[in-house]
């Protein structure tokens, strides 16, 4: 009894449907590539938007005000506080929380520029920000819809919630408005805090940024770096590093950059 023999060139099964499916997939890929809809292109565009240059607020009297667009620069590591989103978050339309880090990118951009706002809306745009006064550090509005509602926040340390490398208090950005978003500026010298309380803050003055709810100071952790979508960067935590004189160490020292180019 003879049996039909088939060579490799014989097409069996749903070969026509498979061929059409491959052609449709190729057309879809080419169409997305031409329109810039591929994930690689979207990610690149979002990176470029986050790194787009931002003009900081320039005040003639060099005093910081509510509504100012500023950068927060760590004196010790010499890097800027920055929003640090994962690659998956960069593709989301709405982001409810993300981490922060200090980045070596010193030029002001959407990633490292923030707006000084009021939590209870008592202080209006243009009012002076003073030592010991509560404020909220918010992401720039009306530019990147996925981060415009984010505010700097910190939560008390728990067994399951702390910074990545150390058991320090975690600092992040959140879209939820709570008292945990409130911060205060203190003079970097503890002996000068009573004398300076209530006085206006000037740009490029060394300061300590304290979390109101937990009384922990904002710090750039210099010992280790963490992996981010923008490369390896230093971690940010709410932890007060004290020296032998009970004064904050340089890890807790920051300056508000409101108009002067840091690269000069």
From TrEMBL:
Pfam families in UniProt: CFAP161 (PF24569)
InterPro entries named in the record: CF161 (IPR055325)
Keyword line: Cell projection, Cilium, Flagellum
Superkingdom as given in the UniProt entry: Eukaryota
PANTHER family, A to Z: CILIA- AND FLAGELLA-ASSOCIATED PROTEIN 161 (PTHR24274:SF1)
Protein name: Cilia- and flagella-associated protein 161 isoform X2
Gene: LOC100199313
């Amino acid at each position: 009894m003879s049996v039909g023999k088939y060579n490799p060139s014989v097409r069996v099964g749903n070969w026509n449907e498979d061929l059409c499916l491959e052609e449709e997939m190729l057309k879809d890929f080419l169409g997305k590539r031409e329109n810039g809809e591929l994930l690689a292109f979207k990610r690149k565009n979002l990176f470029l938007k986050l790194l787009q240059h931002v003009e900081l607020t320039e005040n003639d009297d060099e005093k910081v005000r509510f509504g100012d667009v500023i950068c927060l620069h760590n004196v010790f590591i010499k890097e800027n506080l920055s929003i640090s989103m994962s690659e998956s978050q960069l593709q989301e339309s709405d982001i409810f929380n993300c981490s922060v880090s200090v980045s070596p990118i010193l030029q002001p951009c959407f990633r490292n520029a923030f707006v000084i706002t009021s939590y209870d809306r008592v202080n209006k745009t243009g009012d002076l920000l003073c030592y010991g006064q509560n404020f909220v550090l918010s992401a720039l509005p009306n530019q990147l819809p996925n981060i415009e509602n984010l505010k700097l926040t910190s939560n008390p340390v728990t067994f399951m919630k702390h910074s990545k490398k150390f058991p320090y208090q975690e600092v992040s950005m959140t879209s939820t408005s709570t008292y945990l978003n409130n911060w205060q500026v203190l003079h970097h010298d503890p002996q000068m805090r009573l004398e300076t309380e209530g006085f206006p803050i000037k740009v490029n003055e060394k300061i300590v940024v304290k979390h109101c709810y937990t009384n922990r100071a904002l710090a750039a952790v210099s010992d280790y770096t963490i992996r981010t979508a923008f490369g390896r960067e230093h971690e940010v935590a709410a932890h007060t590093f004290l020296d032998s004189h009970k004064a904050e160490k340089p890890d807790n020292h920051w300056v508000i950059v409101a108009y002067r180019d840091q690269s000069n």
